[in-house]
Each structure stands twice: as structure tokens, then as C-alpha cells.
Amino acid sequence: MNLPPPFVPKGAVFQGIGVGQGIAIGPVHIISATNIRVHRFKLTSAQMVERELERFQEALEKTEAQYLRAKNSLPQELSGQASVFDALTTLLRDPVIAKSVDQKIRQDRINAEAAVNSTIREMARLLANINDAHIRSRSSDVEQLGQALIVAMRDPSATQQPIFQEGCVVAAFDLSPAEVSSLPAGRVVGLITEAGSQTSHAALVAQAIGLPTVMGAAGILQVLEHGDTLIVDSREGHIIRNPDADAVKFYQTSQRTLKDYQLEIVRSAHLPAVTLDDHRVDVFGNLELVEELPAIIANGGEGIGLYRTEFLYLTRPELPPEEELFEVYRRVVASAAPRPVTIRTLDLGADKILAINDTEGARQSQALGLRAIRFCLKNLDIFRAQLRAIYRAAVHGQTRVLLPMVSSLEEIRRAKELINETCEELKREGRRVAENVPLGIMVEVPAAVVLIDELAKEADFLSIGTNDLIQYTLALDRGNPEVSDLYQPFHPSILRMIKRVITAGQAAGISVSVCGDMAAGVYSAPLLVGFGADMLSMPFGVIPFVKRLLRMSFFEETKAIAEETLKAKTADEAMAFVKSTLKTKNAGMPNNFRIAS
Ligand code: PEP
Ligand code: MG
């Protein structure tokens, strides 16, 4: 593919967070920031309380119908993405919300809008304090849900349909997923927002409908004026205001190249990742929310390599009951079947603190505190309830269980004892229990790497969590921007550790996968394959690109490069070597195609 040269745009360039891979050029359509004003008043009679409860109920039904309409209006080929609206509907039906609003109306005697607003603020605050970008981004879903409910309680005649100019780029403070999906296709060609992030639901919808989007461009509404022309480059997160003729020409060419490329990779997403010399690598998806499952499958994910199960525990003031966990796991396992699902047991602690345990003590030395398997082995009631739900659900499809942060043999042995006890208990109760569920460990602590030969004898499979392995090996907080430049996946100690783990797994005759971010990198993914990784698991959006990248690679070449890279003495040396030798370095991708290294 003929790639245009790199281009440095002149003029006003704003930086935001790019969502998806598109370019849009068009006149701006500004949607003013709407801060919904919520009136609050006291209810002075039992009839008023009844009336407000009814209004809340009506708003729930109206909002659910609105999500259903938005979901049904998605084009057929994007039906997999309709799950975003299922997620919002699930949130809408969350009994925690209904109970809290009900209580505020009955006991605090405040009107329905104020009760919704206060409930939503409490939930959003809870979520926003969680130091996990993915989960934190859900707080904007909660906010949007609150706004939708409040709007639904308003006089319907107050809403007006805006008129969008042909080919315009919408600029807004924030949009809900339903609003994004209802932007008229064809007329609206791009979107920029001040709020939002890559993992927000609005971003998922924008990506699903192929709308080039840049989010998080804080302050941009202050400078934009009606009549401006914008270029939105979602690969780089760039917004160019009033570009010159050269910039327009450059981006028009890039737009055509990108479209051709995207068409090609989506068409091939379901082909297996078999290298040119016939070596197959499994490419799986990482799952945080059940609602992402259809997108993983639609993007060619061959299974779930990492199901992070923390989310259900973090967004509520009490522990989720076993029955609810079972139902969610059953749904995931059954919907993914015949694809395997790797359920990781709770990785609570560190940045993921239980709401009921959110104390100063729990937050101290987070990354080195009571986390993951250590937390579970000290909170047996919580662990047992999850294990019961997992082993009951595992009957409904191919399931694997993965223990996070294992650093000693005792941990895996103790976990096995608990699993056996749990399964026996379930059988005694006359329940069906899955047999022969493979039990694996995450390798993400240096101690596990040093001890890998022993651990590999106890485990049925290994999964390398490069995110934490880098954090703990290089002694730097993965969420701290001050040390982000030192967070080096190509650090020789990391590469040598990965190689060591894979070799130990091979010697023990068990499979080794990688589910940290390195599995999704344009350079690191082929390198991991060269080291001998059997499976790579990654966020759903990257699956088609990594599969394509591997289909364009020669296994023998990645092996030789991986071998040579291990000799590098510094991260820069290793990176430079891979960049200069890997023939698939562009994999036919257009310039600046955004994918991690
Ligand atoms: C990892 O550490 O690489 C990993 C996949 O786990 P998490 O990102 O959930 O900590
Ligand atoms: Mg981890």
C-alpha cells in the first residue's frame, strides 16, 4: 500500500483522546453544553409522595423505551454493538438505583428529579474514586442515565429536533450513547466532545457506528465558532480548526487510504491468525462488562482470555449475592460458547477497593497492599461465594479459572483446596458442578517468574499479565503519570522474564498466554508470538488488527527477532531492533494507525 508521508498540520491543532480510526472534515455544528438544572422541593402530603413515585416509574419506562428505540435503529451490521444499550438498560433496572430513589422520595420526602439526581451523584462519586480508567469511565454512563431520567420527567413539548447541515462535525460538551447513535448518519461525519474517554459507552457507540471521534478535548467549545471548518483525526486525537488547503488535501488522501484499509480488515476479522508459515496463534478478547461480549465475537475474538470480574463488586454499597454472580457468569459462559471463557477470580485491592471497605487503611500502599489472591485468601466468605458462582456457571460452557497475582506455591495450593471444598459442598447440595475446569495463574509478580518452574507444575495454564509485571518489576506505579516514561514494556528484564515464563510453560506442557497490554502492541504482539506465546488476549477493538498483523508475519522470522531482541541491553536498543527488523512493521496499516507499540 502506498503510504502518504508524515504530515505536520499548520494552524490551530487541539489534542484530545482519539476514538477509532477515522478522519472527518466538515463545518462545525456546536451543541451548547447543557447543564440540566434540577429543582428540588419538599413533598408535603402522601399524595405528593405517590405522584412522585409514579413519575419516577414513568421516567424509567420512557427511558427504557428510548434505549430500545436507539438500539433498534442501529444498522444490521452493527447489531453486535447494540449491547451498549443493553448495558444502559441493565443499569436503568439496577435495583440499587430504584431502591435509593424510592427511599429518598418516601423518607426524605423530596421530588423525583432531586431524588434521582442525588442517587446518581452518590453512585457517580463512588465510581469516579475507583482508580481504574475503565470502571471510572462508567461513572459518565451513570451521569448520562441520570440526565436521561430527569429529561424524561420533563414536559415533552420542551424538546426540539436540531437541524444538522450535510457533512458536519458535531462539537458538544458531552453526549450520551443514545444521543451519539441518533446523530443522523451521513449528515454528521465526525464528533468532538470536551468530556469522555476512550472507554466510555458513548465512545463505544461512536466507534461502532464508525464516527470519527475525538473526546476529552477540554476547553475547545470556548474557541470554536459557527462557520469554522474542522478536521477530526481520531487516530491521533487531533482536531484542526480552519485548516489550510494543504492540510485538507493531505487528510482527504489519508481518509481514502484508511477507508480501504478498514474495509479490508473488518472483512477478514473472522479468519484465524495463522502466520504465513502456518503457525496458529489464538486471539482472544478481554472482558470487563458482559455487554462487551458481542463486540469481542463480532471482531473475531476466538474466546475470552481474561474476564475481569471486579466490576460487579465495585459499583455498589453491598456485596453482590452468589445468585446474581452465577447468573452473570452463566450468561457470559453460555453466550460465548463454544468459545472458552477464562474467568479471573477477584483482583480486588490496589486500585480496586470495595465500596464497603473504602477506608484510609485499605487505600494505603495500594499496589503493594492486600490485593487479588491475597485478599481472597483472607476474605474467605467473599472468595467462596465467587467460587460457588463460577463452578456452577461453568456447567454452561467451556470455562477456565485464573488466579491473579500468585506469588507462591501455597497460594495456588490453598486456592485448589478451597475450590475442591466448594465443589464438594455444591455436590452435596445436589447442584450440578463443572468437572475438569482448568485452573491457571496470572504471572504478574517477579516472584512468580523466579519460581515459575515450580508453579507451572501446579497450574493447568499460565497467563502473563504484563501490566502488573512491568509495574512490579520496574517498581513504578502503572497509574502514575510522573513515571509513565519509565514504564517500558521493552525493558530487557521484562522481555527476559516473559521468555523465561513461556519456556517454563512449554517444558511443563501447558499453554502460556499473554493478557496484558503488550498482547495488543504492533511490535510487542509479534515479539510475544516469537517467544512462543500460544494465545494473546486484548481489548475487542484491537483484535482484527492483531489478527491481520500475525497473518502477515512469518513465525520463523518473529522467532529469530525475538531471540535476537533478548540480547539487547536497554529498552531503547530492544525497541530499535524490533522496529528496524520486523517486516510487518506497518502490516499495510496507513500512517499513524493508532495501536500500542
Ligand atoms: C495485567 O496485569 O497485565 C493484567 C492483565 O491484569 P490487570 O490489568 O487487570 O491488572
Ligand atoms: Mg494484573
Produce a short descriptive summary.
The protein is of the alpha/beta class. The protein is built from 25 helices and 17 strands. It is globular.
Q: Topology of this structure?
A:
Blueprint: E1 12-15, E2 17-19, E3 23-31, H1 46-72, H2 83-92, H3 95-106, H4 112-128, H5 133-136, H6 138-152, E4 168-172, H7 177-181, E5 188-193, H8 201-208, E6 213-215, H9 220-223, E7 229-233, E8 238-241, H10 245-267, E9 273-274, E10 280-287, H11 293-298, E11 304-308, H12 311-314, H13 322-336, E12 341-344, H14 360-363, H15 372-378, H16 380-393, E13 399-403, H17 409-428, E14 439-443, H18 446-450, H19 452-458, E15 461-464, H20 466-473, H21 492-508, E16 511-514, H22 524-531, E17 535-538, H23 543-551, H24 555-565, H25 571-581
Parallel strand pairs: 3-4, 4-5, 5-6, 10-11, 10-17, 11-12, 12-13, 13-14, 14-15, 15-16, 16-17
Antiparallel strand pairs: 1-8, 2-6, 3-7, 7-8, 9-10
Bound molecules: phosphoenolpyruvate and magnesium ion.
Detailed description of the structure:
The structure is a single chain. With 597 residues, this protein is α/β, with parallel strands linked by helices. It has three domains: 12-32 and 162-265, 3-Layer(bba) Sandwich (Glucose Oxidase, domain 1); 46-158, PtsI, HPr-binding domain (Enzyme I, Chain A, domain 2, Orthogonal Bundle); 268-582, TIM Barrel. Helices cover 45% and strands 13% of the residues. The protein contains 25 helices and 17 strands. The chain has an eight-stranded mixed β-sheet. An eight-stranded parallel beta barrel has the order 10-11-12-13-14-15-16-17, surrounded by six helices. A hairpin with a 4-residue loop joins strand 7 (229-233) and strand 8 (238-241). Helix 4 (112-128) packs antiparallel against helix 6. The radius of gyration is 25 Å and the shape is globular. The two termini are 21 Å apart. Residues 444, 465, 467-468 line the site of magnesium ion. Residues 306, 308, 347, 444, 465-468, 515-516 line the site of phosphoenolpyruvate.
